[in-house]
Design brief:
The complex is a heterodimer of chains A (about 170) and B (about 60). With about 170 residues, chain A is an alpha+beta fold. Chain A has 2 helices and 10 strands. Chain B has about 60 residues and is an all-alpha fold. Helix content of chain B is about 75%, strand content about 0%. The longest helix of chain B is centred in the middle third of the chain and has 26 residues. The chains are: A alpha+beta (about 170), B mainly alpha (about 60).
Chain lengths: ~170, ~60
């Protein structure tokens, strides 16, 4: 079979393109460490969140040196705690669950975005940078007031975070 | 006549056209599409996606 030289050229180019796309995704996983939302968390009873150690009192707590865990409950039609206050330059893991129906958890304008399914705990880890205020929105239709379901994620300086925590209103 | 054409055409196909046919326009068009694809991907993945805050790492 004779294949024209030009055709060989664009066949080779399209193979290179595919390798480039796959290579980018591999680079993202290996270099910056991009990860998926995992399903490693145990299932919980969405009707008994008030008896759950982590979710009875939605909060942000320090779990290691410069590592924080944010336990967030999404329910019709708000997020708890609100605002979610986390310190700058730290690693924050959000554990998000729903008390009623399927919600979304999207920190607007960022890559932090997951579904929130009742009975499941969505776990995403992010690295915070400089202090910033992010909007937090529900992106799964969850009922009549879905459009008003929003919260805030505030990245604050380390000293401000400590002040809030020690002041007693660190949610 | 019909017999003549059928006998003639395959012989022409096999031997003649490969070197003369030079679709430079198609090559250029595919080249342009290729460049657009690569540039779009670089923008979407490396600048827009990786450049955003709060990258999910776990």
């Amino acid at each position: 079979m004779h294949i024209h030289a030009y055709e060989k050229l664009w066949l080779a180019a399209s193979v290179l393109l595919i390798l480039f796309l796959l290579g980018s995704v591999t680079y993202g996983a290996v270099g910056p460490g991009i990860a998926m939302v995992s399903d490693s968390e145990q299932a919980i009873d969405p009707g008994a969140l008030d008896e759950d150690q982590r979710f009875s009192e939605p909060r942000v707590e320090q779990v290691g040196e410069n590592e924080y865990a944010a336990y967030v409950v999404a329910r019709q039609f708000r997020f708890q705690p609100d605002p979610i206050v986390v310190p700058e330059d730290s690693t924050v893991t959000f554990y998000v669950t729903s008390a009623d129906v399927i919600h979304g958890f999207e920190i607007a304008g960022t890559n932090a975005n997951t579904m929130v399914v009742p009975g499941e705990v969505s776990e995403i880890t992010v690295e915070t940078d400089d202090p910033a205020e992010y909007g937090l929105i529900c992106n799964e239709y969850c009922g009549l007031a879905h459009h008003g379901m929003e919260g805030k994620v505030n990245v604050v300086s380390q000293s401000e975070f400590e002040n809030r925590t020690n002041g007693g209103d660190g949610e | 006549m019909g017999r003549n054409e059928t006998a003639h055409a395959p012989a022409e196909d096999v031997s003649g056209d490969t070197e003369e046919f030079d679709p430079i326009g198609t090559l250029t068009l595919i080249g342009i599409y290729f460049v657009i694809l690569v540039l779009s991907w670089v923008y979407i993945y490396y600048i827009e996606f990786l450049g955003r805050d709060l990258i999910v790492v776990g």
